[in-house]
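Task 17 of the worksheet. Students: predict the tertiary structure of the chain below and write it out as structure tokens. Keep your answer in the requested format; marks are given for formatting as well as content.
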Amino acid sequence: MNLAETLRFRNLLERERDRARAQAARPLPMAMTSPQADALDCAADLSLWTIAQATHLAARRRLAQAELALARIEAGTYGVCQKCGQSIDVARLEVLPAATLCVDCQRKAERTDN
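Model answer:
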């Protein structure tokens, strides 16, 4: 990976880190139903809270992944598969800038996870 690509990925990851950090910083909603609320209102509140919690957790995961990828850039190991040590294809990094595995190692990992 050349310097221009590394700088481009650094910018992508910094923007993703900032978006994820802002999203993770938003407070989770509190219950809004009143004591007179019916079962549908309570269910709707629970659904909204569940979605907000899942969104919050996903943002925290994206934040951690972006920060780890930025640390790999600083260490000079960004774009190198953590399993086999080969270069991760730039096209894969375009889709998933925080990728830690090459396509082959990712496929193997997914097969063993099932």
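Marker's comment: The radius of gyration is 19 Å. The domain at 3-113 is CATH 1.20.120.910 (Four Helix Bundle (Hemerythrin (Met), subunit A)).
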